[in-house]
Structures are given as structure tokens and as C-alpha cells.
Design goal:
The complex is a heterodimer of chains A (221) and B (300).
Chain A lengths: L3 H5 L3 H22 L2 E3 L4 E4 L21 H9 L9 E4 L4 E4 L24 H19 L3 H12 L32 H16 L8 H9 L1
Antiparallel strand pairs in A: 1-2, 3-4
Chain B lengths: L8 H10 L10 E5 L5 H14 L3 E7 L9 H10 L3 E6 L7 E8 L2 E14 L16 E5 L2 H4 L1 H14 L6 E3 L5 E7 L4 E12 L7 E6 L3 E10 L3 H7 L14 E3 L5 E3 L24 H14 L1
Parallel strand pairs in B: 1-2, 1-3, 6-8
Antiparallel strand pairs in B: 3-4, 4-5, 5-11, 8-9, 9-10, 9-11, 12-13
Classes of the chains: A mainly alpha (221), B alpha+beta (300).
Amino acid sequence: MIHKDLLISNTADEYLKEYTRDGTQLLINQIFQSSLNSSESGIAVTLPDPITAIPREKPIPKPKPLTRWEKFAKAKGIHHRKKDKLIFDKNTGEWVPRWGYKGTNHDGADDWLIPVPDNTDQFANRREVKKQRISKNEARHPLKEELQKTILMSKTSTASNGKFDKVLEGEPKIKGVKRKFEPNVGDTKKEKETNLNILNKLIGKNDSVLNVRKAITKINQ
Amino acid sequence: MLKITPKNARTRRILQKREPKIEENVKTAIFIRGNKTNQIVNEALTDLCSLKKPYSIKFSKKNNIRPFEDETSLEFFCQKNDASLFVIGSHSKKKPNNLVFVRMFDGQVLDMIEVGIEKSIPIKDFKTRKCSIDVKPLFIFNGELFESSQIHKTFKNMLLDVYRGKTVKSIDLKGLEHVISVTAVSNNKIYFRVYIVQMTKSDQKTPRIELEEMGPSYNFVLKRTKFAKEEVYKQATKVPRTLKPKKEKNVNVNEMGDVVGRIHVGKQDLSKLQTRKIKGLKRGTDDDFEKTTQDKKQKI
């Protein structure tokens, strides 16, 4: 119990010090009763969990909203499972890679012996079958590159060669398209040939591009 | 409040650090001067700031801040410095040697307590050893008022908030260097003292404690207050679900105080059960079995 009178008097500081000393002694005694771990750096005391509720600085963070894919996966019950790179080979009792070097998806291409039913090259046969399978699978997935090519083509298929088209979001950037010029002084033979080719296309007797009848009517207009 | 959109990676990183976290960082305190101050207040701000180092910012210029009238500038400083504790010092004829302790939550003022300094002795006047920077203090709150009176409770909580530092699971005994002693008896008076702890050997297992005043030393008088709204305070003291201890299943304490738990054991393999050894139960070889059957046939 604190004596109020002593706090008012001149010896208040002394009294406070003594009173606090007693309190601190009790506190230290309490601390020493909990488990002590001595190490090289010193003696550490395990503290109990804090009791006093002290307000936070910022509110508890809200969980981030799910992305469209996450929502869909949740609704459908789709879980992402990572495929193991190694699989167990029952025949040999070893773990082998799923594909690649020493992989298991080679369909016995490494076999040193294949029985021959009718005099054909069984090794070549297997290779051929695999190649066909791969190309068939690839045909199912239109290549990204090809898709970009068609996009590019369609872009330049307007009256103004796509000059005034709006660029859409996520549209592939045109890459590697450069203007190419023939050298000023070069192969005259080749130049002559190309020019003749163009002329032939226009007015050549065989499969000419020019519609003569239409052209004449145009001029007469 | 001002919303900043990061323009480069560095600002994005800084803003990310300031986002609300489940386990929070140590709150930063800003020590700031009001419109007019005197030497007592200035020294008090410096000393209180030095006790809070390194989680403290001291503003050296005067600011036109009146926390009880206008909170906007506090909100601005809070947002700008990512600090949520304030100690504002001022001095006027009406309110001499004034200190205002302010806490913020979510960029808004949570609660405030105004105290006047009646008597003060700065740290530099005590020619003793000082505590090192960033060590956790021991707290001693003397007086029943800290349990009963709302204003005292808030002041206690506020001081704990400012000086408790990081919450830790264990502490080195060497790190217990100083005690902050706060005593309240009556008349709105609060005695704030800081002592250095000296541990000496004693007959008991625990060392004997000797104290030496390190400073600062203040006699405070409680003045105006602004308490937190119950709703907001409840929200501020909410413990995130992840930090709450997990509920233990199937474990209870019975009337006798014993812990009773239910354990699930797998099915017992009865075939390997050791029974009493009787001759008849002995497992014989297959030949024996055939012989006995043949004997039986012959008998028939």
C-alpha cells in the first residue's frame, strides 16, 4: 500500500525508489521462476504470452479476392497437382525420368533387338510411328507463331495496310519485319529476270493477272 | 486519406511494407512541438524520444497542432511517416508545460491523454549509467487506480504501447537494464520515474535488485482526455485468427483437475497375442497333423 503522505513530503523520490525496488524485486523473482535457458550469449528467459490487449496500428488485413481462375477452379474442384519428374519403373525397380534422356517414353527405341515378323526395318518403323504421332499432336495445337502470323496478315489486309488501325491490348508486337532493298549496283541478270517476271504476270499469254477487257473499259471511261 | 499509386519498384516496396500485416511491426512514435514551447517541454520531448529510440522520430520545428481541436494534421503526419504514436509538447499561460499522448488506429485518432508537467528533471541531470538503445524496459505500475480508473487504465496502456518494443518469446537477462515506474495515488497526479537495474548476488536463487535513478523524472497532472469509441477499440484489439492459439480437441480437465484425453489407437493384431502356453495349443508340424488324422482313420 502506498502512503500518500510520504509522496507529498520532501522524501518522495526516496520513497518512490524504495517502493519501486520492492516491486522490481518481485517482478524479477517471478521472471526467474520461469524456465531459464543458458547459452554462450547469456541466460535467456522464456516469457509468458502478453495479457494486456494493446490496440493494433492498422486493421487486420483482408484476404485477397480470388482471381477468376481461382474462383472457377474452386467451383469445379480443380486442384493443382505437380507432376513428378521421376516415375517408378516396375520392370527394373528403379526411378527413371518421365521423359528425356533415359526417359521412359521412348517406346523401346533403345532396344538392342526386335524380332522381325516380315523383312522390314523395325527400328525405322518405330521411328516413323513416333514421328507421325508427334506431328499429329502438333497439328491439334495451332502454333502460337502461326497464330501471330495470321494476326499480322489480317492487320495489313485493310485498304491502308493497317496504318490507321487501333492497337488492341495484348496484341503481339510485329517483330523481325524489315524493309529490304536490292543493291543499286548488282546482278543485272537477276534484275532483268524479276522485271520480266512481273511483266509476264501482267501481260503474259499464260495465266495473266490482268483482265484486259476490264482494263479497256476503264481507260475508255 | 491520400492514396499513392507506386510509379516504380522502390516505392512499391516501401508501400508494401506499410500495408496492414498480421503480425505488426513496432509502432513508430513522433515527438513534436506545438505552437509554443519552453525549455521544460523541449527537454521532456527529447528525453521521452531517447527512451523510445530507434522507433522514434523527433520533429525539431514548431507546428501549429492542437490535437483536441483539429486532428487533420495528425492524420497527415501519421500517413506521411507511417507512425501511429504522437507526443505533442506545448506551453501556454492557460496550459503550462503541456504534453499530449496520442494513439492512432488505421490513420485515425484512437485516443488522447493530456498531461501537464509539474516537476521535471531531464536525463542529463542524472550523472549515472544510462540504458542502451532498443532494450525492453521493466514496467512497474504502482497504485490501484491503474485497475479501476478509466483514465489511468488508458494512460497505462498508452505507456505500454509506446515503450514495450517488440513482442518476444524469450529475453536475455542482461537485456533487463531499466525499469519504468509509474505511480498514481490520487489528485490526478502521476509520478513517472526511470531507474537503472543493478543485480547483485544474494543468498537466494534470484539476485538482489538495486535501483539507481537514470531519468527522466516527471510529476504529471492529468488533464483533458479523449477515449476511443468502444466499437473502434474493439476492432483495434481484435486478434487475427492465425495468431490465436489452436483449440485442443479431445482433451479435458475433469473435476479432480486431471487432464483427460482421448487417444485413438489402431486395431490390435490378435494373431500375435501372447496367451497362456498349453500343450494343446502348440502348433505342430504338418507331418504330425497327417499322422494324427491317419490314426483316427485306423481307429474307425
